[in-house]
Amino acid sequence: MAGVSGTLLRRLQSVLNAAVRLVFSARRSDHITPLLLELHWLKITERIQFCLCVLSYRCLHGSAPSYLAKTLHLTSDIEARRRLRSGSMSTLFVPATRRSSLGDRAFPVAAAQAWNTLPVSLRTASSFLTFRPQLKTFLFNISFPDN
In sequence order, what are the beta bridge partners of 92? Predict the structure, then answer.
């Protein structure tokens, strides 16, 4: 997610797990999933996607810094793609990159990819106050599909 290596993601998840154990005074051998569920905390990969999508929403609605906002473009704003079916689905244009190892880490690429994975109902949310909790619920269901 966002160009972070699997090793680093595991390390970050380990830090999050340690924080959960600290909150609950749990032992290292205790299962972490029920504790994450009780706190309603996202796993690291979904947490990264959450941050990218929130920032994308703010960019699209004018409440993010302009230097970030001008890097994201709706597919419908691009003349060559306006007539495509994706032009009416509020997706973001994902810029082409030369190197997947570095280019996919760039904000315009990572944010557009994260945004485009969201359901249409989330991408077209009327306000930030409705978008954010719906996004967290959506990503929470991805983190913990059985609950």
Answer: 74
Reported as a single tens digit per residue, the pLDDT across 53-112 is 999 999 999 999 999 999 999 887 765 555 555 545 688 988 887 766 666 778 999 999
Domain ranges in the chain? 43-143
Closest CA to 125 of 26, 56, 57: 57
Q: What angle do CA 20, 25, 27 make, to 5 degrees?
A: 85
* Helix 44-60 × helix 107-116 angle, to 10°: 100
Query: pTM for this structure?
Result: 0.86
Contacts of 11 by beta carbon, 8 Å cutoff, 6+ apart: none
